Amino acid sequence: MMRSLFYVLTALAVIGLAFWAYHENYKTQEAQARAEHLQQQIGLERQRLRMLRAEWAYLNRPERLRDLAEINFDRL
After folding, report:
1. pLDDT of residue 58
2. How many angstroms separate the CA atoms of 37 and 50, rounded?
3. Are 53 and 46 in contact (CB under 8 A)?
4. What φ, ψ does residue 39 adopt, rounded to 5°?
5. CA distance 28 to 19
6. CA distances from 47 to 50, 51, 58, 63 (A)
7. What was the pLDDT predicted at 1?
8. pLDDT at residue 63 above 90?
9. Distance separating alpha carbons of residues 53 and 33, to the nearest angstrom
């Protein structure tokens, strides 16, 4: 009787550990997928930031600003 109870409890423990391992594996895969998605987003945002910095540098060229100041001097 005691031995069969031990076997049943051991089997339940193994089933419980298998379920836990499966659940942890699923959570790990989900976290990896989220991390990959975030890495892609970071890459896109870095590319966008480079574009914005280039645009800012283009718009703030001294000769362009001087021309704009001359054109709009009366309004300033």
Report:
1. 97
2. 20
3. no
4. -65, -40
5. 14
6. 5, 6, 17, 27
7. 84
8. yes
9. 30
* pLDDT of 54: 98
d(CA 69, CA 73): 5
User: Which positions ≥6 away from 64 have C-beta within 8 Å?
Assistant: 58
Residues found in the chain: 76
Structure tokens at 19: 């379920």
Residue 74 or residue 38, greater confidence: 38
Q: What confidence tens digit (pLDDT) does each residue in 18-53 have?
A: 999 999 999 999 999 999 999 999 999 999 999 999
Determine the 3-state secondary structure of 61 from DSSP. Answer: coil
Instruction: Give the start-to-end residue ranges of the domains of the chain.
Output: 2-75
- Rounded to whole angstroms, the Cα distance separating 65 from 30 reads 50
| Tokens 């594996």 -> residue | 25
